[in-house]
Write a structure and sequence with these properties.
53 residues, mainly alpha
Length: 53
């Protein structure tokens, strides 16, 4: 009788894929957050210019 199948490589590959997806998602959130802060700064600048007129 043989022992259990050796699935260590699939186990590691699964974790690499999962953590890769999570890292991509966190990076995407960080980029979107920075873009949001830039947009807010532009809107605030436009608001100040409108107040000057």
């Amino acid at each position: 009788m043989e022992g259990p199948a050796n699935t260590l490589n699939y186990f590691i590959a699964g974790y690499v894929v999962i953590f890769g997806i999570m890292a991509g998602y966190v990076t995407s959130l960080a980029v979107r957050w920075n873009n949001l802060k830039q947009d807010a700064a532009v809107l605030e600048e436009l608001k100040e210019k409108e107040g000057e007129k």
